[in-house]
């Protein structure tokens, strides 16, 4: 069974779907008519009501932002340790 290619939708399309829902069209009707998944539509509705933005960056919680920052810092520190190890090897040879 071939895997379906992931579709992407513009922010304008997402906004239109949310507006249809807010104007009284049922979730099921929107999902069926536009061949969407219910979870995607639910996520768009939630994003529109909480932040008004459909960008993932704008919809992250403070914990998610902190986790991303810590991962970046951890990556940087690992690189620094590798550089220092190499420098110690070079200095040890002299």
Strand portion, in percent?
under 5%
**Which H/E pattern describes the elements?**
HHHH
How does the helix and strand content classify structurally?
mainly alpha
Coarse morphology: elongated
Figure out the total of helices. 4
Radius of gyration: 23 Å
- Main beta sheet strand tally, sense and closure: none
Low-confidence stretches: none
Mean pLDDT: 88
Distance between the termini: 61 Å
Give the proportion of residues in helices.
55-70%
Number of β-strand runs: 0
Question: Could you explain the architecture of this structure?
Answer:
It is a single chain. This protein has 94 residues and is an all-alpha fold. The protein has 4 helices and no strands. It has helices at 11-22, 27-34, 38-50, 62-93. Helix 1 packs across helix 3. The longest helix has 32 residues, at 62-93. It is elongated and about 75 Å long. The termini are far apart. The mean pLDDT is 88.
Pick out its properties.
single chain, 94 residues, mainly alpha
Question: Care to give the gist of this entry?
Answer:
This protein has 94 residues and is an all-alpha fold.
Question: How would the blueprint of this fold be written?
Answer:
Layout: H1 11-22, H2 27-34, H3 38-50, H4 62-93
Helix pairs in contact: 1-3
């Amino acid at each position: 069974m071939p895997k379906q290619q992931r579709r992407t939708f513009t922010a304008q399309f997402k906004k239109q779907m949310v507006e249809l829902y807010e104007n009284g069209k049922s979730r099921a009707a929107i999902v069926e008519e536009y061949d969407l998944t219910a979870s995607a539509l639910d996520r768009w509705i939630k994003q529109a009501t909480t932040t008004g933005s459909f960008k993932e960056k704008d919809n992250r919680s403070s914990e998610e932002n902190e986790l991303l920052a810590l991962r970046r810092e951890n990556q940087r520190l690992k690189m620094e340790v590798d550089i220092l190890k190499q420098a110690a090897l070079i200095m040890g040879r002299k």
